[in-house]
């Protein structure tokens, strides 16, 4: 267990450092006193406090865009009024100076005009410099506003990421605590895991060897079944020849040669049944033969029966169809085998193939 503790403590130290960095970043963000954040919050809170219970027209009047448009219109109207006022005032003074008496009229000398011109020029220069400063300020605002917005977005993303990392750290610690409570000591160490892996590899190799042995045994059993099927075929031929011989000889019932021949035929049938595990065979009709085979299952299971129904064409010895029951329980699909043997009229091959597949499934 001493070799596994550093690997568990190292992530905890890194997580603690990440939490401290996140807290420091949050503290710095709060201490910066960003005006955009404060003004946005103040603006939102102001609208939420004052807009409650207002009419739609009053709510539209509180919209900054609409207010800005109204202010711009009012400023334009005021400038027009100011220009009209100055124009009317100048006309009035001009008319008064013309129609009034010379003694009462104000005397404007050339020096006063020069002084007024100088003052106007100074005011124009100040106005020009003020306009330049205002344009420069506008340009600076246009240049700095995207940068401030970008910094604000980056800072906001960093804050969200810090909060997310803090939550993930808390969740990871909670999961680690639950895992430690679920799996108390002694826990699985690296040497124990390696030993367990080696044992599993050895067990898999043993099972693989057993599978190979079972496959070899199944192969040998298939060869034995094939040879037994050939023996059964030979016995069937001999039985058919014996039946023909019995029919042609037309011997009497009290002939002593029938007894040994009957015993031999009975022994041959018993041998055939024992070799192929034929449990029952009978004819359902003139062209239908039903064969039932018994398969020995591993203990403590009971023997399993497979029934093969052979249907021949009427008045011929050609196989027309075959039905197999009892293979679904073994997980065997024999439709392709049946179709292939029915097409070539191979009855013995069909029976041997079905039994071979069934015995292979039982042995595995």
Commentary on this structure:
The chain is an alpha+beta fold. It has three domains: 149 residues; 56 residues; 90 residues. 73% of the residues lie in helices and 9% in strands. The chain contains nine helices and four strands. A four-stranded antiparallel β-sheet has the order 1-2-3-4. α6 runs antiparallel to α9. The N terminus is likely disordered.
The structural class is: alpha+beta
Please give the radius of gyration in angstroms.
55 Å
Residue runs with pLDDT of under 50 for 5 or more positions: 1-11
Tell me the distance between the termini: 43 Å
Please give the structural blueprint.
Blueprint: H1 5-32, H2 35-50, H3 56-61, H4 64-99, H5 110-182, H6 190-249, H7 258-276, E1 278-285, E2 288-295, E3 304-312, E4 319-325, H8 335-343, H9 347-363
Antiparallel strand pairs: 1-2, 2-3, 3-4
Helix pairs in contact: 1-5, 6-7, 6-9, 8-9
Keywords, separated by commas or semicolons:
single chain, 9 helices, alpha+beta, 4-stranded antiparallel sheet, 364 residues
Give a summary of the structure in a few sentences.
It comes from Galerina marginata (strain CBS 339.88). By secondary structure, this protein is α+β, with helices and mostly antiparallel strands. It has helices at about 5-30, 35-50, 55-60, 65-100, 110-180, 190-250, 260-275, 335-345, 345-364; strands spanning about 280-285, 290-295, 305-310, 320-325.
């Amino acid at each position: 267990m001493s070799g596994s503790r550093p690997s568990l403590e190292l992530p905890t130290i890194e997580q603690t450092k990440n939490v401290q960095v996140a807290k420091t970043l949050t503290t710095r963000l709060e201490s910066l006193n960003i005006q955009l954040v404060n003004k946005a919050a103040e603006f939102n809170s102001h609208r939420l406090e004052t807009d409650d219970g207002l009419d739609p027209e009053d709510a539209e009047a509180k919209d900054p865009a609409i207010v800005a448009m109204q202010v711009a219109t009012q400023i334009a109207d005021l400038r027009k009024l100011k220009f009209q006022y100055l124009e009317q005032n100048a006309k009035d003074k001009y008319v008064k100076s013309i129609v009034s008496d010379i003694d009462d009229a104000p005397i404007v000398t050339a020096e006063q005009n020069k002084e007024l011109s100088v003052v106007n020029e100074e005011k124009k220069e100040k106005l020009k410099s003020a306009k330049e400063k205002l344009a420069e300020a506008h340009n600076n605002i246009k240049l700095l506003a995207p940068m401030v917005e970008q910094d604000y977005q980056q800072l906001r993303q960093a804050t969200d990421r810090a909060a997310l990392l803090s939550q993930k750290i808390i969740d990871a610690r909670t999961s680690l605590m639950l895992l430690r409570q679920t799996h108390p000591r002694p826990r699985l160490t690296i040497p124990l895991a390696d030993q367990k892996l080696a044992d599993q590899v050895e067990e898999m190799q043993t099972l693989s060897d057993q599978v190979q042995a079972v496959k070899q045994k199944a192969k040998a059993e298939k060869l034995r079944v094939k040879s037994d099927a050939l023996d059964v075929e030979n016995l069937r031929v001999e039985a058919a020849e014996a039946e023909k011989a019995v029919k042609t000889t037309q011997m009497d019932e009290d002939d002593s040669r029938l007894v040994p021949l009957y015993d031999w035929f009975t022994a041959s049938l018993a041998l055939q049944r024992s070799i192929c595990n034929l449990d029952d065979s009978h004819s359902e009709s003139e062209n239908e033969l039903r064969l039932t085979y018994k398969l020995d299952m591993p203990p403590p299971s009971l023997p399993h029966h497979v029934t093969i129904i052979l249907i021949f064409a009427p008045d011929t010895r050609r196989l027309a169809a075959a039905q197999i029951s009892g293979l679904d329980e073994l997980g065997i699909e024999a439709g392709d085998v049946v179709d292939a043997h029915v097409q070539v009229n191979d009855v013995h091959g069909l029976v041997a193939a079905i039994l071979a597949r069934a015995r292979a499934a039982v042995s595995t």
